[in-house]
Write the structure tokens for this entry.
Amino acid sequence: MIRLLKCELIKTRRRYVFLTALAIVAAGLVFSLYGDYSGDNSDFILRNGWVMMLYQLPLANGIFFPLMATVIASRLADSEHRGSVFKQLFAAEKKGRIYDAKLIFGLAVMLIAVLIYWTVIIIFGKLIGFAGDPPADLYLRYLACIAAPTAVIYVFQHGLSMLFKNQAVSFFTGVIGTFAGVFSMFLPQLPLLRQLLPWGFYGAMQFVGLFGWTKEARYANAYFELMPVDPAVYFIAAIYAIAFYAVGKYLFYRKEI
């Protein structure tokens, strides 16, 4: 497996997979962090900045990390689909090991991108001047709530990209799923929708809520509170990851190249 992973690293040097992931991370950070931190509400924002980030970031996570999963999985698989390289690989290595090596490599790229995003968020908060230190327990929990949905979605997208030579299938599915996941965040009356959609897990795992905000008073009476998260969502995410992996690998093993 180590040999296969090294081969993946060599093959991706000229495909700019890491650079692509970093570009999407940068776009996500700009989207997440851009704003006025010195306006009329600066006192409230700086005083509650660390918790406010945990409230605001899941929306951006639900947009950019599924997009990244779609792009990275597609680029890793497309290099083999072109020129029928899979035929040569299957002559030298088992299908299952090739599937696993590409999955592990892609997941590693995704998780590195997640860690970079998370680290920059904390550095940004310190530079802006958020009051106090970031609550370590909440930010570690937030890291898990980014990594878990991202991993589930990547396993799904990896299967699609490996199965279909036309990567438009993977892209179309990823875009539709991302749109549905973001849309589900604006339907709090339908929590089951977020819990059943892999792209909705970012919203389902959100554990900070904003209360007391009104259009007239704005942040005058606003406050943040921790919200309970249905434990079932973690169980569903684990089941999805296992199912996506097992079904994707089985179909790839049966696939005629």
In short: The longest helix spans residues 95-128.
